[in-house]
Amino acid sequence: MRRSGGAAAACLLFLAVPGQARPSVGKLMDLLAAASPERKPEVLHALGRTRKKKAVEPLLKMLDFQGQDARMTAAVVEALGEIGDDRALASLKTGWEQLRQKGESETKSAVVRAAIVDALGKLQDPGTADIPRAAIKDADPKVREAAVRALGRRREASDVELLIEAARSGAETAKTAIEWLSEFGGPKAGDALKSAFETSTDPAVKAAAAYGLAKSGDAAALEAIRAAMTAGSADDSLRAAAYLARLGRTEGLEFLSKILADPKSPRRAAAAEALGSSQNVRGVDSLMDAMSDPEPEVRGAAAAGLGRLGGERAWYVLRKHRSDADAGVRDSVRIALTDLGDYAE
Q1: What pTM value is reported for the model?
Q2: Domain 247-322: CATH architecture, name and number where available
Q3: Domains of the chain: which residue ranges?
């Protein structure tokens, strides 16, 4: 269903709830042409979320790995990755080679390199598997983390050793690698999780390893997550609660919901973020309530969480808050709605 006011500045809504069509590629292309440079990446994201093959050729024509603004190029690449059409493979491979020739030290190109690796991970073409394998040793942490995600999506046994090496590297890349290893299964991945759980000094890595082990039935790891939730630092407790919620454990959801509902708690926004990352749709109710919180930071975090968890109820409450008094919250709501297939300009 579409509603428009006719003029370029009018409100255009594209609804993607059950039984309704996604936005047309043609209309989004018109919006893209009229959008400001700051808003163009959002429209490109909406194009990718349509998953429509007819958007591929126009997107490929926009690719410019040499002169175009890096943020714009990355948004085009991300849209191609979302659509998942093999016609993008040759251009993405060419772009990777061109940017590598410019040197890994160029921070601007790292944004695009990371987007290329992420997109190739979604396309999962065997002929481009060497790119994420090489990218896992890239100088830029964003590119390395994208490579971990790409290899994780491939689920190839031959890539387990690379993920194990990344899990030992430290920082965010290690946490992401551990989370993907927990999806693999098998003795090598299991040993890596146990090692990280027993020896890591990074609380985030240790918690991710405990989650992976608990998912496979390790009672000691599950108790360690519970202990971190009740007796850990502020960050550790929220992280542990999110993992418990992801495991389907009621106590994790209750812990985060209680913080979010407490008007005196300074951790409400962080609790909303944790609920959004929990992958548990039962967190939607608490996030819906938080959209009425007096603090814009909390409402913005709740909007982002609703966009991640999704569903018709999340979509409905986000639409109700498109005119929030705070500009930052309005931005968060708009982006969350785009994630749900509803683009508003």
Answers
A1: 0.84
A2: Alpha Horseshoe (1.25)
A3: 17-154, 247-322
φ and ψ of 13, to 5 deg: -115, 135
Tokens representing residue 229 in the block? 């939730």
Give the phi and the psi of residue 252 in degrees, each rounded to 5: -65, -45
pLDDT of the chain, 345 residues: tens digit per residue: 333 333 333 333 344 444 444 568 898 999 899 999 988 999 999 999 889 999 999 999 999 888 778 999 999 999 999 999 999 999 999 999 999 887 655 667 899 999 999 999 999 999 999 999 999 999 899 999 999 999 999 999 999 999 999 998 866 799 999 999 998 888 999 999 999 999 999 999 999 999 999 999 999 999 999 999 999 899 999 999 999 999 999 999 999 999 999 999 999 999 999 999 999 999 999 999 999 999 999 999 999 999 999 999 999 999 999 999 999 999 999 999 988 878 765
CA distance 234 to 237: 5
Cβ-contact 170, 202 below 8 angstroms: yes
